Amino acid sequence: MCYTCRQMKTSLIVNVYNRAAWLKACLAALLHQTVRPDEVVVADDGSTPEQVEAVKGFLATFPIPNHYCYQEDKGFRAAAARNMAIRQATGEYLLLIDCDIVLMPDALEQHLKRAEHNRFLLGQVAFLDQSATRPVLEGAPLNIEAMEALWHAADGSHIAESERRFEKNRLLRALHLTKRHKPQLISNHFSLFRSDMVKVNGFDEAYEGWGLEDDDLGMRLYQAGLSVRSVFREARAVHLCHETHKPERGRWVSQNRDYFDRREVATYCKKGLRQDS
What we know:
Elements: H1 3-7, E1 10-16, H2 20-30, E2 39-44, H3 49-59, E3 66-70, H4 78-88, E4 93-98, E5 101-103, H5 107-113, E6 119-122, E7 126-127, H6 130-137, H7 144-153, H8 159-174, E8 189-193, H9 194-199, H10 213-223, E9 227-230, E10 237-239, H11 253-260
């Protein structure tokens, strides 16, 4: 085990909205990590009382220290939910994932092996179909063998092409020839030092409704001087199938897109981990 993995306190932050069964599978996989997180912080973006009860029920007996944070349901507010959890987290290093992600046994260790100040790490996922996902949600044991079986059942055919595009954009960024948010931060699982997240004041909570809050974070991390590295192949993960909560495009694109496309974007957002009065 690497020195970093032994010495650094790590917080895993997972966001959820009305997907208790998916979250339970996500957390069950953490018990079989070669390096476990020191704590788990669940960010609930306004789940129903029944879903909240289910989440609190299995967190009460979950063997990894954990915290549960809840905000009222006022629509899709992933940025605010994640900031809420980051404020509660006590780790030096943060791994942020979605509740529909199952990390393979060495995924967290792979993140930690490559952790550096002034750099964030981006992961990718292979996709499970409904038939492979259903037994997991119905409570099938999720041990190491089962997790590896999920990996082999998942469709990861896009990962090589995603990595090619990522490296192309990384080169273009070094030459100052790419868009200001490329390579794109996709938030299914990514990691960075807490101190680097604080540099940009976390997620910008001005993003409400679906989309672009993670692109915005990536853009501001670049502006703060951070570099990026892919762990697409090393930190394996699978995505559990589900219906999407994503609304019709017209309901969100004008609000968030106009804000994202503004000419001047402050690196340290006003409405973030700390908010201007």
